[in-house]
Each structure stands twice: as structure tokens, then as C-alpha cells.
Amino acid sequence: MATKLVDLVYWRSMRRTGVVFTGLVIGLASIFQLSAITVLSHVCLGIMCITFPLRLYYKLLELLRWNPGIHPFQSYLEYDVSLTDKDTVMLVEEVVLLIAFAVTEIKRLLFIDNLIDSIKFVVLLYLLTCVGTVANGLTLLIGAVIAVFSLPLLYKKQQVRIRKMMRTFRSLVKKARNQFDSLYGSVASSAPSAPPPKPALPPAAAPPKQKAKSK
Asked: Rounded to whole angstroms, how far apart are CA atoms 71 and 68?
């Protein structure tokens, strides 16, 4: 499955990737105007408008003795999509582990187990609220689909130029960090140091007592 996804993302089969990409974008864009149930129903009706006449055509050829009774979609019908017991157990374990990990992380962030991580989570939530005011989740999903199918291909074609730009960006970040460190060191060294504490004076000696005069 992972290999097939990589093949789709990198457009190794132009026809298959084009069909999947176009179908995803058109299907998601259709949900803007129609409900998901309506879109799914129209997709299924469109597929059956192709498969039903083709099946009737092959049935007619079979009745006329021009076809030995071959089903036009036999390969799709024989394609095994079932899971074995081992695969089912592994899939359920992975899903349970992911849910448990997500619940543990959210609980740790909400109840301030680590202050820095919770601050980062607050900043992320604030950025998500800003993004939510501009676009809804469906728009972000369409953008994510377009990015997944376009960015790997762009990186593959412009790999040398992108690497050069990344090296330039890293050098600029490193230079800015070095300048900040040197500026911080100069400010810290030029700051007046606190005067040393004065030594405590020894307590004054008590005057000697005069001896009482003898009578």
C-alpha cells in the first residue's frame, strides 16, 4: 500500500495518478455545493451508467454466441480486498495505539505537564483559529491534496535549485544566530558588575569593668 501511494504521489503512472488526482479534486470541490451523500450517489450513478450498458452488451454477445460468456469486469470482481486474521489484528492494534498516543499527548498538553510544550500548543491553537477565520476545513483539505500531488514532483524536477536555496537559507539563519549570540555576549560583558559586598566589621570590644573599691 505504501509503495502504491508513493507511485501515485510521484506520478510514476501518469494515467492512474491523473485519474485519482482529478477525481479527488472534483469530488472535494463538489461538496462545496452539494452534500457528501449527494456527491457519493452521483459518483456511483455515473459509474453504473458505464458498467450497466457494457454488461448488457456483453450479455447480448453471449446470447448471439459471439462471446464465450466472459464477464467484462471479472478482474475487478476477483480482486481480493479481504483481510486475514493476522492483518486485522495488526490493523486494530495500530489504530488503538494511535488513539492512545493521541489521548495521552492531548492530556499532557491540556493539563500543563510541560510548560514549554503547552505554550507551543497554545500558539498552534491560536494560529489554527486565525486560519479557520480565513478558510474552512474543506478548503484546507483540497489545498493539502494539491500540495501532496504537486510538491514531490516539483522537488524531483527542481531538486538542485531547491537544495541550493535551502543551503542559502540555512547559511543566513546561521549568520543571524551568530550575530545575535555575539551581540548578546557584548551586552552581557558591558553590563556593570555588582559591587563586592563589604566585609563585616568585627564587634566592638566591651570596656573592662572597674574593680569595686574595697572598703
From this structure: 9
